[in-house]
Specification:
Blueprint lengths: L1 H23 L6 H18 L3 H46 L3 H4 L1 H19 L3 H14 L20 E3 L10 H6 L10 H8 L17 E3 L17
Antiparallel strand pairs: 1-2
Helix pairs in contact: 1-2, 1-3, 2-3, 3-5, 3-6, 5-6
Length: 235
């Protein structure tokens, strides 16, 4: 009986020690790490009170929480990487839109947009590692697209295909107000057409109000009108 208690005690100490080592490398706000520490403390208290079986059970639960904490930390690291890759992919898409890549490099551009939309979907589903890879594929797809300095100007007599969101203090740009411009649709009620085509460019695709200056939105044709280049404000 005494030998059995010694073996149990040794097993408890091993589990507790493992939990301590694991917790040191986890994020401080990790809910599983916090739970693991609580269970470890309870296990130590039970051990000191001679409740060895209870101590083992608590130590095992602590180790399980530590494993979940490591998985959680790894998932959050991939979320951080995926978000960074998304920002870089979005910046690259914005740059090539300024040279009307959809017209000049249609295959590369369409592939890049498809990868970006896939990345957004995977990110929303919290599948961060494949999301990261999809956003990286955006950059790969656009490697051969040359984003020259300066925007592509709309040819005379042709409606613009792209609009760059502006910072207008007295009249903040929105999908509603952009759709209202004569060179877009001249009808604010067409805002949803703009939103649906460009929602994949938004940080939060489900919130059409969160648009930022510098974003380049595509203006889809609705009456077969020819559109090309990026609209430039009159000087």
């Amino acid at each position: 009986m005494k030998l059995q208690r010694v073996i149990i005690a040794a097993a408890v100490l091993l589990l507790i020690a493992t939990g301590i080592v694991s917790a040191q490398n986890l994020l401080t706000n990790n809910p599983h790490a916090q739970r693991a520490r609580q269970l470890r403390q309870q296990s130590e208290a039970a051990f000191n009170e001679g409740e060895f079986q209870r101590s083992i059970e608590l130590a095992q639960e602590s180790e399980q929480e530590s494993r979940l904490a490591r998985e959680w930390a790894d998932r959050m690291a991939w979320a951080y990487r995926a978000n960074g890759a998304r920002n870089r992919a979005n910046e690259r898409l914005t740059a090539v839109r300024r040279v009307d890549a959809a017209t000049n490099y249609p295959e590369e551009y369409n592939n890049a947009v498809a990868f970006f939309e896939e990345g957004q979907r995977l990110f929303t589903e919290e599948r961060y590692e494949p999301s990261f890879n999809a956003f990286r594929n955006v950059l790969t797809a656009l490697e051969g697209v040359r984003a020259v300095a300066g925007p592509a100007v709309t040819p005379t007599g042709v409606l613009p295909r792209y609009y760059t969101v502006r910072r207008i203090p007295e009249r903040r740009d929105s999908f509603w107000r952009i759709a209202e411009y004569d060179f877009v649709y001249g009808d604010p009620w067409q805002w949803r057409r703009l939103y649906e085509v460009n929602r994949h460019m938004l940080q939060d695709p489900d919130n059409p109000d969160l648009i930022q200056p510098g974003m380049v939105f595509e203006i889809p044709s609705i009456r077969g009108e020819r559109r090309e280049g990026v609209w430039q404000p009159p000087r």
